[in-house]
Amino acid sequence: MMKVTAKRSDRNLILQLHGELDHHAAKEAMMELDRYLDVALPIFTELDFGGVTFMDSSGIAVILRLYKRMQNLNGSMKVTHVPPQAMRVLKAASIGSVVRIEEEEVKA
Length: 108
What we know:
Oligomer: single chain
Shape: globular
Distance between the termini: 34 Å
Order of helices and strands: EEHEHEHE
Strand content: 25-35%
Number of strands: 5
């Protein structure tokens, strides 16, 4: 099950995903994200993948939907804290050419 939590500051929104982001969870997550966007009408949104334990290609649809919503609001977004497994999915789809993905710096 996918859980979405939100933190808001002015017109900035941080949406945190928790759990597995697969086909079933993606629909639920998109509806949750839409609800938060409808209330906050943000100019900037951060989609935090820090709590994602698994992601398949359905996660790409979630990101692209949020990207499109933010464009409609004349806003911008970035994706952060992407775990290695999910990052492999995103890189395979070249999603970074469309959406800003903040890669973690590897600590030595």
